[in-house]
Amino acid sequence: MTKYATPKGQKEIRISLEKFKKEFNEENAVLIDIRMPFEKKVWNLPFAIDIPANELENRLNELPKDKLIVTACPENSRAAFAAAFLKEKGYNAKFLEEGLLELMKAFKGGKAKELKVD
């Protein structure tokens, strides 16, 4: 995990909001919300897979092997470590560079239509 957790290695596992939106809308990526349960009580993301960071290791079987896995937290500190962990476990994983706060800002109001969710 050290390889991807260092600043140099993190370049390899970052994904921008725009690239994520494209991959998600084309059904090539899933979003993993790694926030803790108490954080999710404030606002929920029904289009994300809900796996807190501390449960990730025990819930790997819930992750698709055939899609890009994008980890996200409010900013990106925990998400970077989660993506590095998943990468080491053999998953195609990246972290949302801008974090969940920017994701929500980008899709407020009418902009929400840009992200295809059921």
Number of domains: 1
CATH class value: Alpha Beta
Largest sheet: 5 strands, parallel
Quaternary status = single chain
Mean pLDDT: 87
* Secondary structure: number of strands: 5
Q: How much is the radius of gyration in Å?
A: 13 Å
- The proportion of residues in beta strands is 15-25%
CATH architecture: 3-Layer(aba) Sandwich
Q: Residue share in helices?
A: 25-40%
Q: CATH superfamily, called what?
A: Rhodanese-like domain
Low-pLDDT regions:
none
Q: SSE layout and pairings?
A:
Elements: H1 2-5, H2 7-10, E1 14-15, H3 17-25, E2 29-33, H4 37-40, E3 49-50, E4 68-72, H5 77-88, E5 93-96, H6 99-106
Parallel strand pairs: 1-5, 2-3, 2-4, 4-5
Structural notes for this entry:
The chain is α/β, with parallel strands linked by helices and 118 residues long. It has a single domain, classed as Rhodanese-like domain (Oxidized Rhodanese, domain 1), CATH 3.40.250. Helices cover 35% and strands 15% of the residues. It has 6 helices and 5 strands. It has helices at 2-5, 7-10, 17-25, 37-40, 77-88, 99-106, and strands at 14-15, 29-33, 49-50, 68-72, 93-96. The chain has a 5-stranded parallel sheet with strand order 1-5-4-2-3. The longest helix is centred in the last third of the chain and has 12 residues, at 77-88. The radius of gyration is 13 Å and the shape is globular. The protein starts with a helix and ends in a 12-residue tail after the last helix.
Outline of this structure?
This protein is an alpha/beta fold.
Pick out its properties.
about 120 residues, alpha/beta, Oxidized Rhodanese, domain 1, five-stranded parallel beta sheet, 6 helices, 5 strands, about 35% helix
